[in-house]
Design brief:
Strands 1-2-3-4-5 form a five-stranded antiparallel sheet, with helices on both faces. A five-stranded mixed sheet has the order 13-12-14-15-16, sandwiched between helices. Strands 6-9-10-11 form a four-stranded antiparallel sheet, with helices on both faces. It is globular, with a radius of gyration of 31 Å. Helix 6 packs across helix 7 and helix 17 packs parallel to helix 19. The protein is built from 28 helices and 20 strands. The structure holds zinc ion (ZN).
Length: 662
């Protein structure tokens, strides 16, 4: 357990825009910063960071929180793991006892898998560089391939000893559990024996964006046809092949600096490009490119150049996959290497500046590339050509930006010898169809709170572009959720504000804070939430009622219970509740803090009314039930309760200025 003082130190050090900025390219927008959300697929940025509040919020997918929540979400870590991650980044000591075998076991599985992977990487590297077998077999092979030692170190290459289980035995001796050696795929276990998956292979560790080892690729040095040239770690809780790009950790800073990312096929392609001085390069490791991988790149740049070997058949096969790159709104270019060359051989044949110049001169945008490539085989076949035109038009229609689309249309019109108007019409039809489908879907999703008018934004000084889009808030999950969240929100913001005045027993004026008022009102009526979290938060407020140093916002945003800090950030960033406009003396008041004396009682009464209505609904079904079973005693009792509650509801409703008959 990490104490609150240490948590505070970590959060103080972990400046939100810096933490987020490690993974997301942020642009300044007024006092806030915006960028593309790393948690959902979006074309216009709705991911907003508020350095002054120390929190982030995505108005597209709703994720939000402080820097710890961000790391939890982004790196898939638990709360203490995320704190440790940040503590390490900011060199803050967390006092923890030496790990006992029991504690080692207690660490959750993912962390254990990361730890064993990190240890394995060090073991393989040491074996490659220091042991006879590693040096004579592994290192000499790597050097033969022309890979320099500095690259070996940079990518932490290694060697797994030949034989049955040398690595696994050493790992077990160090106290690592077979369970995690197996779940990471480093060790293969059958009933009563274990063996090393990667025995005799040169090891390429695969890092996540944050630089932790999550998997390995192993290359065999045997010429045996029955042995796979490359062997990869299996999918696991820490390694999802479709979300990982080889080299992203080593490349991310250069990708940002050049505002461009090169995509190659294999591990050694990445290595040779780095060696040639081009460091903004990643590999998809043989798999077809996925949405997740493109989004990973898109956090750092919208410009991707895919480098292909000069093998036409292979390229045609992968064209369809590139359409999804277009869909992500990134600028895709393609570079076709001369026949028989791959990035490895090609980059070795020329200097860094020659290579850069070659790429700049020869890369073409994807649509043009695709058109040229396919036209070569279809120019004299009208049916094939018609099919091709449709194919290209579909690709163009995917491009989100209208200007880019029209440039593509002009190009293709020339290249395919088809009138521009025809292409425009085709593209327009496809887009219209897509829009209609999207509207239908949005209509289905918007089932809630449509009457609320958009209003001033109290939290973020300048709304991010996508906020204006119609994103419906989620449906309530428990009774009175909306009202209870509003109660908590108003206390988070104004807990200590003394806005009420009563007379004490001597007739002197006594100031009452928002917190006091709300808690007493709830207490008097014995109101308890159906939701445990809400009750925990209310208890914490009550405990701090007499604490003069209590500051609600930092206390809850930084709370060591991640559910609580999540709720607090959500509420403080919530647009749907804050977008109401309040009337005072006939005029609209833009700032709610000017009318707390009216607003707070109204919120409390709305909550009570909502509770009473829920009770009435419950009674209605009890009355029905009692009627069916001829339980006259219960029926009478429920009906009396019902009539009394109706009166309460009517009173509350009238006080709220709501004359509708219940
Ligand atoms: Zn999002």
């Amino acid at each position: 357990m990490i104490d609150q003082a240490t948590i505070d130190r970590i959060i103080d050090a972990a400046e939100i825009s810096e933490v987020v900025g490690e993974f997301v390219t942020l642009k300044r927008r007024g006092v806030n910063m915006i960028g593309n959300c790393p948690f959902h697929n979006e074309k216009t940025p709705s991911f907003t960071v508020s350095p002054s509040k120390g929190i982030f919020k995505c108005f597209g997918c709703g994720k939000g929180g402080n820097s710890v929540n961000f790391i939890m979400e982004h790196e898939s870590l638990s709360y203490p793991e995320a704190l440790k991650w940040l503590a390490k980044k900011y060199h803050i000591d967390i006092k923890e006892e030496e790990e006992s075998p029991e504690q080692k076991q207690q660490k959750d599985d993912r962390e254990s898998m990361m730890i064993v992977s990190a240890w394995a990487q060090k073991y393989f590297s040491r074996y490659l560089l220091e042991e006879d077998e590693g040096r004579t077999v592994g290192l000499s092979y790597i050097r033969e391939r022309g890979i320099r030692d500095e690259i070996v170190k940079k990518f932490e290459l290694g060697f797994c000893p030949e034989g049955k289980d040398a690595f696994t035995r050493q790992a077990l001796k160090q106290g690592y559990k077979t369970e995690f050696l197996e779940s990471t795929g480093l060790t293969i276990r059958r009933d009563d024996w274990v063996r090393d998956r990667f025995a005799g292979r040169v090891m390429f560790p695969i890092h996540n964006v944050a630089g932790r080892v999550i998997a390995f690729g192993g290359r065999t040095l045997k010429a045996d046809k029955n042995t796979a040239k490359y062997l990869n770690s299996p999918e696991s809780d820490i390694y999802h092949k479709s979300r990982v790009l080889y080299g992203i950790y080593q490349a991310k800073r250069e990708i940002i600096r050049h505002d461009k990312c090169y995509l190659v096929e294999g591990y050694t392609d990445v290595l040779s490009m780095h060696q040639a001085g081009i460091e903004n390069v990643v590999a998809s490791s043989g798999t077809a490119l996925t949405h997740d991988q493109i989004r990973l790149i898109k956090r750092f740049t919208p410009n991707i150049t895919i480098i292909y070997d000069g093998d036409a058949a292979g390229i045609k096969a992968s064209l369809r996959g590139i359409d999804l790159v277009l869909e992500e709104g990134v600028n895709v270019k393609v570079l076709l290497l001369p026949d028989g060359e791959d990035p490895d051989s090609f980059s070795r044949a020329m200097s860094s500046s020659q290579l850069t110049a070659y790429i700049e001169e020869n890369e073409t945008d994807f649509i043009r590339f695709k058109t040229k490539l396919l036209m070569a085989g279809a120019a004299n076949d009208p049916i094939e050509k018609a099919r091709l035109v449709n194919d290209i038009v579909r690709s163009i229609a995917i491009v989100p930006d209208a200007i880019t689309r029209s440039i593509y249309i002009q190009d293709c019109s020339r290249l395919m010898d088809v009138q521009e108007e025809v292409l425009y019409e085709q593209v327009r039809k496809i887009i219209q169809k897509q829009t209609e489908e999207l509207q239908k879907k949005n209509y289905r999703d918007r089932n809630y709170n449509q009457q609320q008018e958009p209003g001033p934004d109290f939290f973020f000084d300048e709304p991010a572009a996508a906020v204006t889009k119609s994103v419906a808030p989620p449906k309530p999950k428990y009774t009175c959720e909306i009202e209870e969240r509003e109660i908590i929100r108003i206390m988070l913001k104004y807990f200590n504000d003394e806005v009420f005045e009563i007379e004490d027993e001597n007739g002197d004026p006594l100031a009452i804070s928002v917190g006091q008022y709300v808690l007493e009102e709830l207490d008097n009526d014995g109101l308890v939430s159906d939701n445990e979290l809400i009750n925990r938060v209310l208890d914490l407020f009550a405990e701090n009622l007499d604490n003069p140093d209590f500051k609600a916002q930092p206390f809850f945003i930084r709370n060591s219970d991640p559910q609580i800090s999540q709720l607090a950030t959500d509420l403080l960033a919530d647009k749907y509740i804050e977008s109401k406009r309040w009337k005072k003396g006939g005029a609209f008041v833009e700032e709610e803090h000017e009318i707390l004396d009216l607003l707070v009682p109204k919120i409390v009464q709305e909550y009570k009314l909502s509770k009473v209505r829920a009770l009435l609904r419950g009674l209605e079904s009890q009355i029905q039930e009692a009627g069916k079973t001829d339980n006259w005693e219960a029926l009478m009792e429920h009906q009396n309760q019902y009539i009394n509650l109706k009166k309460v509801a009517k009173n509350l409703s009238e006080q709220l200025g709501n004359r509708t008959i219940l």
